[in-house]
Amino acid sequence: QVQLMESGGGSVQAGESLRLSCAASGVASNRHVLGWFRQAPGKEREAVASIWTGGAAPKYAESVKGRFTISLNSAKNSVYLQMNSLQPEDTAMYYCAAGEGYGWSLRSSDYSSWGQGTQVTVSS
Questions:
Q1: How far apart are CA 85 and CA 15, in angstroms?
Q2: CB-count burial class (<10 Å; 0-12, 13-18, 19+) for 81
């Protein structure tokens, strides 16, 4: 049974950085996909980044390329999202998600397990 729990959110000013963590128990080393999604009030949920537990390069939404980095630490059963150069438009509830698969995915329908979210607020 996959269980996810995010942490690391907070309130920062534009230009600052945050590192989100997700404890991902029950995730297999080579048959699960992990991702970060976000949703702002009044907006649809959107994918941020995805990484396959089996390796290969991760995938990023165009809006965060060059600023955000997703990474895995299999020994700690954790996935991270390093967010640099944060801007007000990055303000949202950020969710960690997991699903079975053999490659990255930015489609929310490919994820069956979700964390409760951690709030990120960026002020100008």
A1: 4
A2: buried
> How far is CA 53 from each of CA 33, 50, 72, rounded to the nearest angstrom?
6, 10, 8
Scanning 5-112, the segments in alpha helix (DSSP H) are: none
Nearest to 1 by CA among 44, 37, 32, 35: 32
The 3-state secondary structure of 19-81, one letter per residue: EEEEEEECCCCCCEEEEEEEECCCCCCEEEEEEECCCCCCEECCCCCCCEEEEEEHHHCEEEE
Length of the chain: 124
Question: Which tens digit of pLDDT belongs to each residue from 52-110?
Answer: 998 889 999 999 999 999 999 988 889 999 999 999 999 999 999 999 989 999 999 99
- Hey, what are 119's tokens? 């709030």
Q: Please classify residue 100 by burial: count the beta carbons closer than 10 Å to its beta carbon, then call 0-12 exposed, 13-18 middle and 19+ buried.
A: middle
Token representation of residue 10: 């907070």
CA pair distance 35, 62, nearest whole angstrom: 15
